[in-house]
Amino acid sequence: MLFSTKAEYGVRLMVELGRQSDSSPVSLSAVAEAERLPLSYLEHLVAKLRKAGLVISTRGAHGGYSLAKPAEEITLDIVVEALEGQIAPMECFHETPEGKVLCSHESDGDHACATKLLWTRVQGGVTKALAGTTLAELVEFAGGATEKTPVGSAA
Fold first, then answer.
1. Going by C-beta distance under 8 Å and a sequence separation of 6 or more, which residues neighbour residue 80?
2. HSE of 87 in the Cβ direction (CA atoms, 13 Å)?
3. Angle CA 71–76–79, to nearest 5
4. How far apart are CA 60 and CA 45, in angstroms?
5. In terms of pLDDT, which residue wins out, 116 or 121?
6. pLDDT in tens, 31-69
7. Cβ atoms < 10 Å from Cβ of 35
8. What's this model's pTM, rounded to 2 decimal places?
9. Is residue 80 within 8 Å of residue 135, measured between CB atoms?
């Protein structure tokens, strides 16, 4: 299963926001520079993360983005779904809001798709791994929190 650059870059953005020890807002240009990511793409991704309630924005000279809640409370399944949409291992695979798995190859209720069990297990495993990983774990793995260097000062 391949996730797109939306998930990769979006998770890197979230980790960078989580690394700020004082939880002060971070400009997207600072994240783009630190992570070597395209600023215009980050603007698109942060809009999705904001809509999902994962980040908040602050306007003004010292504005930017910060996490909407502690990194320990943010699991990666929520982040990836906000960026990618529903986690599905195959195009034919769909999950209903009630949690029922549907396959577009099933023409009626009596005929089960031959591979539905496999893809249901794959989806469950991926979702379990993402849900079992917090943003705080990724921040710690990446080297922990950093002190924010004020704009214009030497690092």
1. 3, 7, 10, 11, 87, 130
2. 25
3. 90
4. 21
5. 121
6. 999 999 999 999 999 999 999 999 999 998 888 999 999
7. 14
8. 0.81
9. no
Structure tokens at 90: 């195959």
DSSP notation for 27-61: -HHHHHHHHT--HHHHHHHHHHHHHTTSEEEE-ST
Domains of the chain: 5-141 (1.10.10.10)
Tell me which residue has tokens 């769909």: 94
- For residue 103, how many other CB atoms are within 10 A of its CB? 17
Task: Classify the C-alpha dihedral 39-14-27-63 as positive or negative.
Answer: positive
Q: Which amino acid is at 59?
A: R
Angle ∠(110,116,119) on CA atoms, nearest 5? 165
**Going along the chain, which residue ranges are E strands?**
55-58, 64-67, 93-95, 101-103
Residue 45: count other Cβ atoms within 10 Å of its Cβ. Answer: 23
Residue 75 one-letter amino acid:
T
List the one residue out of 105, 81, 101 whose CA is nearest residue 92. Answer: 105
Both structure tokens of 146: 């950093």
Give every CB contact of residue 152 below 8 A, 6+ residues apart in sequence: none
